[in-house]
Design goal:
The structure holds two protein chains of two kinds. Chain A is mainly β. Chain A contains no helices and eleven strands. Classes of the chains: A mainly beta, B mainly beta.
Chain lengths: 113, 114
């Protein structure tokens, strides 16, 4: 069964600190893995998209890693800001004639002053 | 222009009303999607249009009727909805035929069914 699991479910950190969010998946055949940021009541915004051959990809203070062998990904946020408070969703794409997206349940991050 | 625009942002309707949600993109994407998202849950796929033709219907009740009048527009017609249909409805678009095609989401339409 295609599944994406994220941990932790929620996280509170102090402003300026770093944090790492985890994503484990069992999606086949794998196409790519994406991290989205979603503010409450808004649409998801893409942070990174990684294919099988990519290990690391950065977008400003966001760095995603992918280990296709262990089927794990992480999203590292450096020097957190209050505006980083949001849900972070890991989405894995399978190729089934079209792109079938499997969504994780997300990690709710709260950055506290 | 990398935007997917959804209107209205908020909609309140009764169970006997007929309303529509609209979505527009000008990125030349030929795949467009409707997702439904309940609070604290991930988005759930409803429909996929590819080249203006309905490709996927994830067993959505017929009270939701999608329409793709042209390559830039996607509508979701609503009729005889139930209170449990209250949710955030997200439109998205992506290129067709590219395995790593980025999926762009709109800001969503918040629907409340009374």
């Amino acid at each position: 069964k295609n599944q994406v699991e994220q941990s932790p479910q929620s996280l509170i950190i102090l402003e300026g600190k770093n944090c790492t969010l985890q994503c484990n998946y069992t999606v086949s055949p794998f196409s790519n893995l994406r991290w989205y940021k979603q503010d409450t009541g808004r649409g998801p915004v893409s942070l990174t998209i990684m294919t099988f051959s990519e290990n690391t990809k950065s977008n400003g203070r966001y760095t995603a890693t992918l280990d296709a062998d262990t089927k794990q990904s992480s999203l590292h946020i450096t020097a957190s800001q209050l505006s980083d408070s949001a849900s972070y969703i890991c989405v894995v794409s399978a190729i089934l004639g079209f792109q079938k997206l499997v969504f994780g349940t997300g990690t709710r991050l709260l950055v506290s002053p | 222009d990398t935007e997917v625009t959804q209107t209205p942002k908020h909609l309140v309707m009764g169970m006997t009303n007929k309303k529509s949600l609209k979505c527009e993109q000008h990125m030349g994407h030929r795949a467009m999607y409707w997702y439904k998202q309940k609070a604290k849950k991930p988005p759930e796929l409803m429909f996929v249009y590819s080249y203006e033709k309905l490709s996927i219907n994830e067993s959505v009740p017929s009270r939701f009727s999608p329409e793709c009048p042209n390559s830039s527009l996607l509508n979701l017609h609503l009729h005889a909805l139930q209170p449990e249909d209250s949710a955030l409805y997200l439109c998205a678009s992506s290129p067709v035929g590219r395995a790593t095609g980025e999926l762009f989401f709109g800001e969503g339409s918040r629907l409340t069914v009374l």
